[in-house]
């Protein structure tokens, strides 16, 4: 009788609540106003020939490398950052290896690590969700073959300075170190310029967030020159679709559009944090395009809150299932118009549900 491998049975299921997303989408950290108009123009210009041919990735990789100011051979375009994570796991993990994450964090790290047969070591974050440098370093062994760190982290928005990340990389020279910078644009700090300080560092970026192209699935993996041929060996030559490849140059070329969106988003983030502070709702200062707040002490409280926001046309994300996040809700931020709608709904729901203010952090 046909059956999947045991390691597939050990992979945790991930079911994002994508169904019925009617309303202002502040639940998945998407760009809430969409992509640059230049991207839409390029999409409209695609011909039947563009779609009938297999996509050619390398010329666009060269353009992205120039934009990032890194050698073109160090860049691999992927089907979203998810594929980049998957490729790293397939390249560097064997059954019985150890892979380390710090929780709470992005769920797909664990899933792809487990699917490669690795033993996933989950280290709890420090107080206020800071990266536990000492605990992480102490857990590294000869079996450690991969460490994945989102910076800024999701769902917390916390940021770890580059020197601490380099310290981790130096402590595990036999492991692939992934620094996932999906939210880089909202904090403006990157480890990319210091990646040559260690030979085992990989960095990912995405077009799903600030560029508003989540539906096209395009990500970037940047790694050491000598390691990239192995990653290309396990990657499909046609992994990024023609529409995405056509749009990427337009997306990175429209600097004013991106700068405006980032500026407005940061202002909105500060406004939301100020409102939460004024209401004495505990939250974690963020360096991303979202804010995590503790609405109540139970998952039920968070679920009720999310449903009340949905009834007002605002979608936010219950993060109670994440480590140490019971009762927490994550709010995506964007332009002022959307944030004003969010704040107005918050006032109504806080009053209607008599949300207890000043709930303590873990």
What keywords describe this structure?
13 strands; four-stranded antiparallel beta sheet; seven-stranded mixed beta sheet; Aspartate Aminotransferase, domain 1; 362 residues; alpha/beta; Aspartate Aminotransferase, domain 2
Main sheet, how many strands, which sense, barrel?
A: 7 strands, mixed
Write the CATH homologous superfamily of the largest domain.
Type I PLP-dependent aspartate aminotransferase-like (Major domain)
Helix content: 25-40%
**Strand order within the widest beta sheet:** 2-8-7-6-5-3-4
**Number of H- or I-type helical stretches:** 13
Task: Count the E strands.
Answer: 13
Radius of gyration: 21 Å
CATH class of the largest domain: Alpha Beta
Q: Roughly how many Å apart are the termini?
A: 48 Å
Structural overview:
Strand 9 (283-284) and strand 10 form a beta hairpin. The protein has helices at residues 6-9, 37-44, 48-52, 58-68, 80-92, 107-115, 133-139, 162-171, 228-233, 242-253, 255-278, 299-311, 336-353; strands spanning 24-25, 75-78, 98-103, 119-124, 144-150, 176-180, 201-206, 219-222, 283-284, 290-294, 314-315, 317-318, 328-332. It has 2 domains: 21-30 and 256-353, Aspartate Aminotransferase, domain 1 (Alpha-Beta Complex), CATH 3.90.1150.10; 37-253, Aspartate Aminotransferase, domain 2, CATH 3.40.640.10. The longest helix is centred in the C-terminal third of the chain and has 24 residues, at 255-278. The protein has 13 helices and 13 strands. Residues 358-362 have low confidence and may be disordered. The protein is globular and about 55 Å long. Helix 4 runs parallel beside helix 10 and helix 5 (80-92) runs parallel beside helix 6 (107-115). It is α/β, with parallel strands linked by helices and 362 residues long. A 7-stranded mixed beta sheet has the order 2-8-7-6-5-3-4, sandwiched between helices. Strands 9-10-13-12 form a 4-stranded antiparallel beta sheet. The chain has a two-stranded parallel ribbon with strand order 1-11.
């Amino acid at each position: 009788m046909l059956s999947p491998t045991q390691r597939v049975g050990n992979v945790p299921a991930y079911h994002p609540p994508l169904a019925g997303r009617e309303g202002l989408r502040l639940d998945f950290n998407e760009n809430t106003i969409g992509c640059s108009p230049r991207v839409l123009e390029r999409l409209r210009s695609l011909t039947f020939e563009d779609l009938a041919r297999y996509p050619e990735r390398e010329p666009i990789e060269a353009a992205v490398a120039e934009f990032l100011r890194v050698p073109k051979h160090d860049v691999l375009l992927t089907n979203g950052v998810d594929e980049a994570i998957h490729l790293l796991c397939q390249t560097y993990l064997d059954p019985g290896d150890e892979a380390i994450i710090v929780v709470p964090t992005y769920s797909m790290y664990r899933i792809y690590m487990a699917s490669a047969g690795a033993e996933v070591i989950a280290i709890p974050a420090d107080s206020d969700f800071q990266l536990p440098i000492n605990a992480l370093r102490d857990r590294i062994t000869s079996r450690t073959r991969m460490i994945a760190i989102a910076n800024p982290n999701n769902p917390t928005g916390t940021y770890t300075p580059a020197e601490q990340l380099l310290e981790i990389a130096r402590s595990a020279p036999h492991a692939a170190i992934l620094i996932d910078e999906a939210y880089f644009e909202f904090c403006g700090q990157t480890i990319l310029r210091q990646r040559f300080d260690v030979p085992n560092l990989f960095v990912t970026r995405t077009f799903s967030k600030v560029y508003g192209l989540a539906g096209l699935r395009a990500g970037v993996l940047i790694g050491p020159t000598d390691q990239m041929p192995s990653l290309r060996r396990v990657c499909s030559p046609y992994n990024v679709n023609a529409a995405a490849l056509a749009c990427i140059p337009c997306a990175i070329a429209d600097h004013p559009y991106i700068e405006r969106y980032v500026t407005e988003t940061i202002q909105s983030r500060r406004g939301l944090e100020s409102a939460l502070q004024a209401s004495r709702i505990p939250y974690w200062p963020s360096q991303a395009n979202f804010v995590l707040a503790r609405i109540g002490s139970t998952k039920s409280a968070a679920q009720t809150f999310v449903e009340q926001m949905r009834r007002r046309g605002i979608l936010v994300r219950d993060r109670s299932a994440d480590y140490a996040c019971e009762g927490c809700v994550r709010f995506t931020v964007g332009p002022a118009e959307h944030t004003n709608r969010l704040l107005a709904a918050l006032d109504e729901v806080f009053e209607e549900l008599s949300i207890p203010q000043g709930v303590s952090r873990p």
